[in-house]
Amino acid sequence: MKRTTVTFYDEIYQQLENRVQEKGAQSVAQCVRELVDLGLKIEKAASKSNEKDEEIDLLEAIVELKNLLKNNLNWSLETRLLTRFLVESHPDNNKEKKIEILEKYKESANNYVNGLVGDAAS
Q1: Contact 16, 31 (CB under 8 A)
Q2: What share of the chain is helix, strand, coil (3-state, %, to 5)?
Q3: Nearest-5° angle of CA 35, CA 30, CA 46?
Q4: Is residue 52 part of a domain?
Q5: C-alpha dihedral over 59, 65, 68, 74, to 10 degrees?
Q6: Is 2 a domain residue?
Q7: Domain housing 79
Q8: What is the total count of domains within the chain?
Q9: In the prediction, which pLDDT does 51 show?
Q10: Are 91 and 109 in contact (CB under 8 A)?
Q11: How close are the terminal C-alpha atoms of the chain, in Å?
Q12: CB-based contacts of 58: which residues, under 8 Å, 6+ apart?
């Protein structure tokens, strides 16, 4: 057991003495030990609560990112299907021209997705 000397303001010491009488503690020193122990437990619980809050914030950010990606992928797929339909339905029967148009949109879509995920190398 370690010892330390602590000085309190008169008002605080009076509150400690009142607490000793109210709680039936053995001494002011015992009262201080109990309060320090309680304070440390509260601080530890608050620390665990903060960790849980950080985990919840991270999970919320992941869910938000998932929804953003889902919406963007749905938009991309709808656009691609619509483009394919329009190109295939085009009255011009030049197959090479249709393939060229589809390749152009494929490249554009790949560039969009790479920009979305921050991958400029692909």
Answers
A1: yes
A2: 80, 0, 20
A3: 20
A4: yes
A5: -90
A6: no
A7: 10-117
A8: 1
A9: 74
A10: no
A11: 64
A12: none
User: What's the pLDDT score for residue 4?
Assistant: 85
**Is residue 107 domain-resident?**
yes
User: Scanning the structure block, which residue is given the tokens 């201080």?
Assistant: 32
Q: What is the distance between the alpha carbons of residues 10 and 29, in angstroms, rounded to a whole number?
A: 15
pLDDT of 122 reads 47
For the record, the structure tokens of 69 come out as: 């990606």
Q: Find, among 44, 38, 40, the residue nearest to 19 by Cα.
A: 38
Residue 29 has pLDDT above 50, yes or no: yes
CB 122 within 8 A of CB 110: yes
Looking at the domain assignment, is residue 3 inside a domain?
A: no
- What would the pLDDT profile of 69-111 be if each residue is shown by its tens digit? 787 777 877 888 888 888 878 777 788 887 887 888 788 777 8
